[in-house]
Specification:
Blueprint: H1 4-9, E1 19-21, H2 24-35, E2 54-57, E3 62-67, E4 70-71, E5 79-80
Antiparallel strand pairs: 1-2, 2-3, 3-4, 3-5
Length: about 90
């Protein structure tokens, strides 16, 4: 989904941790939460559109969505995936 050369240079804009492609299980879980109206990004916006893919921060706490093939690397657009961080993805 994303060019491995690009993935090798992208890092979290907040912590500079490495990123990896998110697995389908996480994407399915986030899409389920979005469909239930329970998925928010760091800014607090409710997300309802299906997620096609994304990048997971090395520590597993933030998910950066890929929209139209382009990774959205804005920290406020990141989706927390830890309990108590705006949604319950885990």
């Amino acid at each position: 989904m994303i060019d491995p050369r690009l993935l090798a240079v992208l890092v979290c804009p907040e912590t500079h941790m490495a990123l990896r492609a998110a697995d389908q299980a996480l994407i399915a879980r986030l899409n389920r939460l979005a469909a239930e109206g329970r998925l928010r990004n760091r800014r607090g916006d409710l997300l309802a559109s299906p997620i096609e893919g994304g990048l997971l921060r090395q520590d597993g706490r933030l998910f950066f969505p890929i929209i139209d093939g382009i990774p959205v690397m804005l920290i406020d657009e990141a989706i927390p995936v830890e309990p108590g961080q705006n949604n319950h993805a885990r």
